[in-house]
Design goal:
The chain is of the alpha/beta class. The protein has helices at 2-8, 20-30, 43-50, 59-65, 70-79, 92-106, 116-119, 122-125, 206-218, 234-244, 262-273, 289-299, 316-327, 345-357, 372-383, 401-417, and strands at residues 131-134, 145-146, 164-165, 183-186, 224-227, 252-254, 279-281, 307-309, 335-337, 363-365, 391-393. Among the domains are: 21-86, no CATH class; 91-142 and 158-231, no CATH class; 344-419, Leucine-rich repeat, LRR (right-handed beta-alpha superhelix), CATH 3.80.10.10. α14 (345-357) runs parallel beside α15.
């Protein structure tokens, strides 16, 4: 028989005949959804299957069976042009599920998209999602309805008569189900809105805030929460903080680039006494002296905070002095950013005492303030007796060159002594 076949095709040989095992593996690949055979295969056979499985298979089939590796890398590469797996713990599987869920949420249209669209993803993906970075939240497509005025309590939200009733995706239906979620980054905005721009596209509503507050409290694994560029005002911030008090795992809080003032800063101060926060970022808000004093009061007895960023606020000398006084008692803070806060030589004098007595602070940023020659001299004299500061940003502070040179030399010496 072989000789007969050879007569018709001189290039034919037995080596061209696929092996039975190869035929079986192709059958497994082509029928994986109906007969998901994987665990009983050898590692070589598993690799063969992962390289050929369809990337459009239902997630409830592949999530639990197919391990991290080639298959999930293929899924990612087919979906997204840029795939930096280092941002996902070098896990292709984690990247796929996190970005897939992010895309679903960012495309969610309230009262149009069924919540089931999101909730159906939870069973297959819950074990692999550690971080969600939501860069847009869409509004309902129908015309907004005006809200009625409600009475205001200490923690409630003040609702303006003309505030439109446009609510975004409700996180309270999701966060408690993501049992491994550690980081949540949110921006209430619509990307590429063009000529259809409205301010409502760039802020959360009171209902958004309430549902998010409940969701944050229910997410016991959350370590980092970032809500920025979302027009969060005092009342919304206070409500969120209320539900973050005594949170068991929260370590980093970022409310940067919002509209937060002194009232909410006092709530933040309370949070510092009832949490284990290590990083607090309140950059570019409206915190002035009284709010900074409230944060400073909490800082004086806090034993967990490592980083405090108050850049681009309005703390002025009232707040700057209070923070300086608090740091005489604090033994944990290692980084303080007071850049762009209208502080003067008065604050420089308060901080110069900190530089001679505090042995924990390593980095301080005082840039874009009006410290002047007197303030610069006080800081330089204090730095001459400091051995711990390895970063001191004094750009655009009107400090004279001699004082700046002295400060920089001490910083370089301290940096060198670390190695």
């Amino acid at each position: 028989m072989a000789s007969l076949i050879y007569a018709f095709d001189p290039n034919w040989s037995l080596s061209l005949v696929p092996s039975l095992s190869n035929i079986c593996l192709h059958w497994i690949v082509n029928n994986f959804e109906e007969n998901p055979i994987f665990e009983k295969l050898s590692q070589i056979q598993k690799d063969f299957v992962q390289e050929r499985l369809s990337t459009s298979l239902p997630l409830h089939v592949t999530a639990s069976l197919v391990p991290d590796g080639v298959y999930w890398k293929r899924c990612c590469k087919e979906r997204w042009d840029i795939c930096d797996v280092s941002h996902y713990g070098d896990s292709w599987k984690r990247m796929f599920f996190e970005r897939h869920l992010e895309n679903i949420i960012e495309g969610f249209i309230p009262e149009v998209t069924e919540p089931k669209t999101v909730l159906d993803l939870v069973p297959p993906c819950r074990n692999y999602i550690k971080k969600l970075d939501i860069s847009q939240l869409l509004l309902p497509t129908k015309e907004p309805q005006l809200k009625k005025v409600e009475e205001k309590s200490d923690w409630s939200l003040k609702i303006d008569v003309d505030e439109p009733h446009v609510d975004h995706f409700d996180f309270s239906i999701l966060l408690d189900k993501l049992t491994n979620l550690e980081e949540l980054h949110l921006v209430y905005r619509v990307k590429q809105c063009g000529m259809s721009f409205e301010w409502a596209m760039f802020q959360m509503t009171d209902k958004d805030c309430k549902s998010l507050a409940y969701a944050l409290k229910s997410c016991k694994t959350l370590k980092l929460f970032r809500l920025h560029q979302s027009h969060v005002d005092d009342e919304k911030c206070r409500l969120l903080v209320k539900y973050l008090l005594d949170h068991p795992s929260l370590r980093e809080l970022d409310f940067s680039h919002n509209l937060i003032g002194d009232s909410a800063a006092r709530a933040i101060g309370k949070l510092l006494t009832r949490s284990k926060l290590e990083v607090l970022n309140m950059c570019n808000n409206r915190i002035s002296g009284p709010g900074a004093k409230a944060i400073a009061h909490a800082l004086s007895s806090n034993s967990t905070l490592l980083v405090l960023n108050l850049r681009l606020n309005r703390v002025m000398d009232e707040g700057g002095q209070a923070i300086g006084k608090a740091l005489l008692n604090n033994t944990t803070l290692s980084y303080l950013h007071l850049g762009g806060n209208d502080v003067t030589s008065v604050t420089a004098f308060a901080l110069s005492k900190v530089l001679t007595e505090n042995k924990t602070l390593k980095r301080i940023n005082l840039s874009c303030n009006k410290l002047g020659e007197v303030g610069g001299k006080a800081l330089a004299e204090a730095m001459a007796r400091n051995s711990t500061i390895t970063e001191c940003d004094i750009r655009m502070t009107d400090i004279d060159e001699e004082a700046a040179s002295t400060i920089n030399k001490v910083v370089w010496a301290n940096q060198s002594s670390e190695f």
